[in-house]
Amino acid sequence: MLFEIGYYKISKRGEILVDETPVNRVEFVFLLYKFKRAYFGNFDLDEGLFCASDDGQVPNRGKNQLKGPCKTCVMAQWNGKTPPACTEIYDLICFDTERKQPFSFSIKRASIKPFKKFLSNAALQFDAQIDDIPVEQCLVGEITVREAKKDKKEYFAPQFNITRHCSAKEAHHYAKVKQTIERFMTEEARMRQKMLPSAQETAPEEPPDTEESAMAEVNTSFPYPDDDECPFA
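RE: above sequence
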């Protein structure tokens, strides 16, 4: 049971990479998101990913995995205006209306605010809602990239704007796409839970090499954007 989701990201040149093909804009419908956290070591020392949590609550991977929970971890706390060492990451799961495919687009740090503004604007589009479908699936948006500067550091940031209302046929289609993805994500979570050792067992270093475990890894698992490769402030 495989379900492919494309992975889009912003390049260091300020382009949106659609499965590694550069474009200037992406027309999309927002479906849902996955929240996670990642704590990277010193990039100059090539320390890589120290600790990460696929659900943003309990660490489950990384070369120096901390105990957690994330909510109380010292690496997840603000120090005045200094952000946490452990970064909040939102994997936005959307539908590319031009290429007719679902995709994941990761945002973090200053990139989260423009998306929350997009959601706030969407919530006010009362005349866009069709039947009982969430308004987010009744709107088509656009992702573009702009240059930004913070603390003398220049970077590229995504912008999210509403472009039009969906037709009834489109809205029902996107609602079904969302339901399908949610079903696969639920099945993936069930598979992962099934593979976890019981309290009396010792957890193996790697999951068993079975067809089921391989499928669970492929379905809807998204890579963690490296701090150097994801030029967001």
